[in-house]
Amino acid sequence: MATAARSPEADGHPEIPHPEAVVVRFAGDSGDGMQLTGGQFTLSAALAGNDFATFPDFPAEIRAPQGTLFGVSAFQINFGASEVDTAGDAPDVLIAMNPRRSRPMSSISSPAG
């Protein structure tokens, strides 16, 4: 059974952009598994045939005092189908496991993100 191909714009939906590379940052409290999550995401991106560069961001404090914004752990990956040279400047996607503690990271997202 054959179906006719239709463009997304014909259905009233905008066309989805396909960027060359995407920068994703996982952020959360130290000890929440951000490095492990980033490592597993990197493994999945590599197995899918993507090139990548990573930047693990370890906090100076192992566990910050309650109510403070210190102790945020992050893992950034820049991955894409073409050659990737750096871990990226600003994330296109910020995945915050704890939004309140990840507030310092929200101001550094890219204009498109």
Task: Describe the protein in words.
This protein is of the alpha+beta class. The chain has one domain (21-106): Pyruvate-ferredoxin Oxidoreductase, domain 3. Helix content is 16%, strand content 26%. It has 2 helices and 4 strands, in the order E-H-E-E-E-H. The chain has a 4-stranded mixed beta sheet, with helices on one face. The protein is globular, with a radius of gyration of 17 Å. The mean pLDDT is 80.
Summary of the model, kept short:
With 113 residues, the chain is α+β, with helices and mostly antiparallel strands. It has helices spanning 34-47, 103-106, and strands at 21-29, 51-57, 72-80, 93-96.
Strand order of the largest sheet: 2-3-1-4
Using the coordinates shown, work out and report the CATH topology.
Pyruvate-ferredoxin Oxidoreductase, domain 3
The CATH architecture can be named as 3-Layer(aba) Sandwich
Mean pLDDT over the residues:
80
Radius of gyration: 17 Å
What count of structural domains?
1
Give the helices and strands as they follow along the chain: EHEEEH
Distance between the termini: 40 Å
Beta-strand percentage range: 25-35%
CATH level 1 class label: Alpha Beta
Largest sheet: 4 strands, mixed
The share of residues in helices is 10-25%
Stretches with pLDDT under 50, minimum 5 residues: none
- Total beta-strand segments: 4
Number of helices: 2
What is the CATH homology-level superfamily? Pyruvate-ferredoxin oxidoreductase, PFOR, domain III
Oligomer: single chain
The shape, in one word, is globular
Structural class: alpha+beta
